[in-house]
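#onboarding

Welcome to the new folks! Below is a worked example of what a typical request in this channel looks like: someone posts a single protein sequence, and someone else replies with the predicted structure as tokens. Don't worry about understanding the tokens yet, we'll cover that in week two.

Example request:
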Amino acid sequence: MLVTRGFLPSSPRPVALTIGNFDGVHRGHQAILERLVREARARGLAAAVLTFEPHPREYFSPETAPTRLTSLREKLELLAAFAIDQVHVQRFDARFAHLTPVHFIERVLVQGLRTRWLLVGDDFRFGAKRAGDFGLLAEAAPHYHFAVAAMPTVSDAGLRVSSSAVRDALARGDLAAARVLLGRDYSISGRVVHGAKLGRALGYATANVQLRHNRPPLTGIFAVRVSGIDGGVRPGVASLGFRPTVEDEGRALLEVHLFDFAADLYGCHLRVEFLHKIRDEEKYADLETLKAQIARDCDAARAVLGTSAHG
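Example response:
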């Protein structure tokens, strides 16, 4: 998959295009991507996605912007899994935010991405002050020699499938609901970095997985499945949050204890799938109390995962 970045795109070939933040790449996004690829193949075009970095809401109101479900790397990996040919990561800054809808159509869609077929959500807005809509695209399409189609909202049991709905499910620890909306278990991926090594001192060595964002969409203690180790998948227990017993820095950490595993993982890129929430974070009086709770958490995670104390 070709990935380009910058202020304005430049496509090597004409494209069938969709536009969006695609945070989480949930089932609504997946329906868009599947339709996009079908149309691209039928029309002899490259299947292309235009996405934004940072998220527009992070640019306009960083203090109130929603937490991200996926880092840029995770999002690109998920898009590649849907056979997308190329992605342009549009830098969202003042220059881009001030493009009028007509300039967006001319400079981004037509001149930059060479769009021949465009698929957008039925509530899509674009251009300065969000002044552009589907009606304007439909009006402009014949003049600029591209076709445009709207994708209806995807719902499940009457609930609109959206990134916000996934965030809500994760925030309340409802991993089953998040799984339905995503079509997969929620996961976070990152590189294993050196930490304080407190877990090792307590008898439960952990892999400290680097987080790309400081506000994870879920916190607590979880039964997890971890991939990225010698091509295999291993069970474990993870703590995601702010370690209230031992830290007060307000920095989120993802620490994973893999069952019956002792090899060095520093530098490995792991994907941690969250399967079941065991409990919320708590602050304990001392490290011995914390150690006893970790033992209970491991037992609970093994029970959920069906893993015996000996593997």
